[in-house]
Amino acid sequence: MSRKPIIAGNWKMNKTLAEAKAFAEAVKGKAPSADLVETVIGSPALFLAPLAEILNGDVIEVAAQNAYFENAGAFTGENSPAAIADLGIKYIIIGHSERREYFHETDEDINKKAKAIIANGVTPIICCGETLETYEAGQTAQWVESQITAALKDLTPEQVSNLVIAYEPIWAIGTGKSADANTADETCGVVRNTVEKLYGKTVSDAVRIQYGGSVKPENVAEYMSKENVDGALVGGASLEAESFLALLDFVN
Ligand SMILES: O=C(CO)COP(=O)(O)O
């Protein structure tokens, strides 16, 4: 089964407008062919429009880092999936552990967001992952299975086939302490088996699963060599243009 690799940067709450634009100008025209790998920049909402404009026609896609689950209304401070879709944005990251922890997002919210995003023709990148405590208690598989089952509730097989899921162990995010490639492969395998149990093998063979947590140019190829790892969701190492582009070198 060959799934197209997908490398996505997640800038989190970093950069000014000038820095975001300079980054886009620096990477424009430099990513490998979209036949080999999909390349995505996850930007704060403020910079989505200028990034989409600079990268219009380039192989690099832009992703939002969040969206609300309503298309309009009295929801001060939120951004709708409809408005994000209207900018030509292809992906929206949802359920990141930082959103779950600091902004109290629940599995139910994430499921509603997934549905609203898909209804607007955008692909969600749905994050899951366990705390250090859960990992050390040997409960990772049950935890991730439960998060994924809740996030996918009521989605159709076709919708799930087109999704991207990111497995990000919380203990490996921004810590420099990455899960080793076999552990990442094993838990991405748990995600795939969960999808298979819910939707069957055709769907689980199609869904793309990223690993995230201290991925760098030096270790990305090892993750990408694993059966169940189809991509990476990268924080720190996606912030500088040179390092971001170096994450794509594994295709050569
Ligand atoms: O949370 C992450 C990406 O969403 C991972 O962040 P780091 O790559 O900085 O560990």
UniProtKB/TrEMBL annotation:
Keyword annotations from UniProtKB, A to Z: Cytoplasm, Gluconeogenesis, Glycolysis, Isomerase
Pathway noted in the entry: Carbohydrate degradation; glycolysis; D-glyceraldehyde 3-phosphate from glycerone phosphate: step 1/1; Carbohydrate biosynthesis; gluconeogenesis
EC supergroup of this enzyme: isomerase
GO cellular component terms listed in the entry, alphabetical order: cytosol
Database matches in SUPFAM superfamilies: Triosephosphate isomerase (TIM) (SSF51351)
EC number per UniProt: 5.3.1.1
Keyword Transferase set for record: no
Database matches in InterPro entries: Aldolase_TIM, TIM_sf, TrioseP_Isoase_bac/euk, Triosephosphate_isomerase, Triosephosphate_isomerase_AS
Pfam families: TIM
PANTHER family, per the entry: TRIOSEPHOSPHATE ISOMERASE (PTHR21139)
Function in brief: Involved in the gluconeogenesis. Catalyzes stereospecifically the conversion of dihydroxyacetone phosphate (DHAP) to D-glyceraldehyde-3-phosphate (G3P).
Assigned protein family: Belongs to the triosephosphate isomerase family.
Oligomeric form and interacting partners: Homodimer.
Protein name per Swiss-Prot or TrEMBL: Triosephosphate isomerase
Phylogenetic classification of the source organism: Bacteria, Bacillati, Bacillota, Bacilli, Lactobacillales
